[in-house]
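pipeline/complex-builder :: batch 7 item 3
reading input block
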Amino acid sequence: MGAKLQVKDLSKSFGDLQVLRDMNFTVAEHEFVAIVGPSGCGKTTLLRTIAGIETPDAGAVIIDGKPIKGPGADRGFVFQQDSLLPWRTIWKNLVFGLEVNGRLNEANLADAKKLLQLVGLSGFEHFYPNQISGGMRQRVNLARALALNPEVLIMDEPFSALDAQTREMMQLELLRIWQRGRKTVLFITHQIDEAVFLADRIVVLGRRPGWVKETIPIDLPRPRDLTVKRTAKFGAYVDQVWSLIENDVRASIVEDAQLPAA
Amino acid sequence: MIEQAAEAGASAAAKAGPAAATSKRKPRRSPVLYWTSTASVVGGLLLWEFAGRFIVKKALFLTTPTQIVEATINLIAAGELQRHIIASGTEFIIGLVLAIVLGIAIGFAMASDRYAKRALGPWVAAFYATPTIAISPLIILWAGIGIWSKVIVVVINAVFPMIINTEAGLRSTDKQLIEAARCFGCNRLQVFWKVSLPSAVPFLFAGMKLSIGRALVAVVVAELFGSRAGLGFLLLQASDAFNMPLLFVSVVILAVSGMVLTWLVGVAERLLMPWRYTSEQE
């Protein structure tokens, strides 16, 4: 399998603070990779660099063999639920990416309609984000990213603001949608069990500066449903990831207590 | 990916039809609550009329609503009231429009350029807090007693809330939204038009409401200091002649204008910010 997305020798500092150090990992075509790390692992900087709104000091982000130069529609982003524009209706939010990239043609709009159906929100076109639930907002977020038909889908803690039950349902929904077309996905999360449940591989990051500690392939059969979460194998994966980041998380808690401003 | 998946989504769509999630809460208004404002106003007027007829009696100290209505009718019949309203209204509208346009432009400059912010910041802060109405005699002295001196007074009183609110609105745009827009490939201009400006609209309305209030006061006070027509002029004339009903004609018209303008802004808010007036889901 060829690498669809490659993060190569990525380093970035802000002043004296090194945030990323020689970060290396790849995401193969049709692969679902989750990134897990403690706070301070440079996840925000990594994300901004992949988005092309931050330039690395060294290294590159490579998509289909070409280093990226700035933002582009080859990457689709799903953020936390509040990244929908509150003054736009669901439909207007959905086509936002197409609009700003000058791709509001008939074929794309027809595809966007199908996407709305795919995420189960047909009939909600004229609603505003504050009229629908958090889970529904996240479906719109997902559809908005898919509307650009990106090469890689990058999801930044998309379910972190949802309650536990909605989160589980959204994980299932995401797998259902992903199973159809198998987009290349890079999924960033704090939830270890979420990462194990969703991903083909988990990239575990260390902190200060951010670096790749270990990559763990998740060998659980697909399609997965929620019963997977109760198997011994699932628990073993969660323990394995947790043991890798446990010390870092402790360190970050101590540090946060000392530096409340940070 | 999309084509293959469309039929799979149909089932999910059926599960969650619009009706399931809308729950449009229409607050049930009780008829008593609905008429409370009207009853309050009518009751107050009756009390006033009663006090003026049976307790104070002297029209010089307390005029009554009926006397005010009478004075108003006489004034309209003489063609005087229209003249004063048009004079004040013209000054008010020109001044307010100028203040809003200037305020948005200066607020935008301060929000987007560090040098502009540094250069203009101290002036705006100083003038915003000062009762600039106090320098209106000076303006009359400089610009004469015609319409333009009043327009200038209105502008220097009404422009500052507009500047401050525009700047605050543009600055307070959710960083997450800007970041998301940039990730989707928005350039700086698109971020401004599609994210910052719409998100500042509620602030612009807040600034406008303050500006309208200040502009109304400014028109009247400026006319008191020197004019040939207008509601302030009428007010001064009436008080010089101890004609209380006439004085109150002007006061009532100003009060009603304030109410009508506030209502108009409310209507505009609903039209321009429909997302703020839709039912929220818990």
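note: Chain A touches chain B through 49 residues (CB under 8 Å).
queue -> next item
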